[in-house]
Design brief:
single chain, alpha/beta, 6-stranded parallel sheet
């Protein structure tokens, strides 16, 4: 493991769900209950497809994919949020050693930002409760940029706001699509292990500049 690639970084862009937050179980539950109530099982690649999109685009995709013609994308998003809100407020916590690493970066004057497909309404209460909201100078969601995480737009916007060049900035992500996009944007890429993306672990390891099991590996 070549941790030295991180020793001279000036900025760090960190994903939320599956990277900072142990939250995959919530969305598995939401997907199963939402689709199950409409008579569908969760397709094999559904989660991987919608994860980089953001809520609005994911709802449009879901509506079209399952023929939910009597439901608007706005109604679908509202139902998802209502199902997930309590867990984000009360139950979701940071993955082990994540808070310690974020504090380490902050204490060493590394600029920090969040890049996420999630919605502020859900995650801001979680970051406050976990005591890490104040470490981030910027929070950018896919709703703030033209494209989701299939594109490097969100990482480039984070870097622009932080005033850090992509080549001096590390992106921490747990899903293959996002790691690819960050790489295309010229960033140092750190793949972070999460159970929901284990099926792509070899591919993520191959294209990442560094792959970690947890943030303990780089503390």
């Amino acid at each position: 493991m070549n941790k030295d690639i991180l020793k001279d970084i000036k900025g760090a862009i960190i994903d939320l769900d599956g990277t900072i937050l142990d939250s995959a179980w919530v969305w598995d539950k939401v997907d199963e209950e939402f689709l199950g109530a409409r008579g569908f099982d969760v397709p094999e690649h559904y989660v991987e497809t919608i994860s980089p999109m953001g809520a609005e685009k994911a709802a449009v995709y879901t509506k079209e994919e399952f023929g939910l013609h009597n439901e608007s994308a706005e109604e679908i998003v509202a139902e998802w949020f209502e199902m997930a809100k309590k867990e984000y407020r009360d139950d979701i916590v940071c993955k082990p050693y994540t808070k310690e690493y974020i504090k380490f970066l902050y204490d060493n004057n590394i600029r920090l930002s969040v890049a996420t497909s999630s919605d502020r309404e859900l995650f801001i209460p979680t970051l406050k409760r976990e005591g890490i909201l104040g470490y981030f100078s910027e929070i950018v969601t896919v709703d703030d940029v033209p494209a989701g995480k299939h594109s490097p737009d969100i990482y480039l916007e984070c870097a622009r706001r932080m005033g850090v060049a992509p080549s001096e900035c590390a992106v921490f992500e747990d899903i293959l699509t996002a790691v690819k996009s960050a790489k295309e944007g010229g960033f140092i890429t750190v793949g972070v292990m999460d159970n929901k993306s284990l099926h792509n672990r070899e591919k993520i390891e191959k294209i990442s500049d560094l792959y970690i099991e947890s943030f303990k590996d780089i503390l």
